[in-house]
Amino acid sequence: MMNLDDKDKRLISILQEDIPLESRPFRKIGEQIGLDEEEVVERIKKMSDNGILKRLAPLLHHRKAGFEANGMIVWQVPRDREDETGLRLSQYDEVSHCYLRETGPGWKYNLYSMVHAESEDELEKRVKEMAEEIQPEDHAILRSTEELKKTSLKYFNSL
Amino acid sequence: MMREEDLSEKDRELLTRAQKGLPLSATPFEDLGEELGVDGDEVIERLKKLKEGQLIRRIGGVFDSKKMGWESTLLAAKVPEDKFYEVAEQINEHQGVTHNYRRDYDYNMWFTLSVGPDKDLQEEIEKLEEKTGYEFLQLPKKKKYKLGVKLDLSAEGEK
Lengths: 159, 159
Prior knowledge:
Distance between the termini of chain B: 26 Å
CATH topology of the largest domain in chain B: Alpha-Beta Plaits
Number of domains of chain A: 2
Strand order of the largest sheet of chain B: 3-4-2-5
Structural class of chain A: alpha+beta
Oligomer: heterodimer
């Protein structure tokens, strides 16, 4: 873990929102935290070198036409086939996320994939095809029926 | 509202390049424009329009939360219907809860909890369990096989 001073933390709390759309954005950001433009750019480069900052970039709203149904599919797959199966599932275009997670008491599923489809019927059909291919010991479709909270993680906002 | 299908060829080219990360310099938009053969002002104008059209959600930093000392996990709870919204509120009050969904399963509440370097994840989970009176299934991530999809907008269908 890299040591971040208060200026870094304030810089992160600004960069996690929007950077100004103007020719010298970092001059303006610097004014807010008491750094000159060059220092801001240097700190950003350092965070990028350390891997703390993955990138400065536009993030899109994903609104691809026609993908209405989605579900979290949980799969129970034997230990020795975890990686193989996770990588296979990732190759499907309909799968946006695929993770391996710990199991728990009374919870045997270890692989998780988000699957998107044009309709509920299509979703079920696609999941069935996937199951036929990867041959899990068991699987289940967990549809989200209500969004109770959705925000993004905020870093160092209290400063 | 703009859709991906409505993008001009120039916007596609710009977004595809910009999604990989803006140049980390004092004049990021000008430098990006240079790579694409347009001037900085045009880059800024196009990005502004895409943001107004809500195709771009945000233009800013993407950080590696783990490298900054953030820890997170997926949690699930079985909550009876008559307590459901009360418990959802107690859980959602926690600043570190970023997503919470109802799912059609016996574990019907699924949420993520993230805590910064000044806090202990396990302690926060236990506090939430005490507050709500329910024990959670803890499902920390062991591996990522696929995380979201960056869209290649440069030429439809081409990879």
